Amino acid sequence: MKWVTLVLLLALVSLQCDLWFGHGSWNDMIELENSVIDQNAKNEALVPRNRALTAEVKDLAEGNEAINEMARDKLGYIQKGEVFYRFAPSSTLSTSSTVYQQ
Questions:
Q1: Cα 29–Cα 40–Cα 31 angle in degrees, nearest 5
Q2: Which of 22, 29, 92, 98 could disulfide-link 18, Cβ–Cβ 3.0 to 4.6 Å?
């Protein structure tokens, strides 16, 4: 009768070891919950960026003003009838007007 009790006790201990230390243990569950919390925080931080991108896509799909603005900013786009003016900083003008004397 003692050997049956010993076998059952060993089976119980091995099952408890799997529960506490094996794959899918309590420790794994806590780590997964923490990673889910971290990922949710990252997702919440990205919500404003996603909304801005959605608004930009909507503007691009609906009208030409957003396209014109992006072309002006990134490509130097100028429409017909417009005049392009470039203002140089004053520091570049002073270096080019240096007078050389002999």
A1: 20
A2: 22
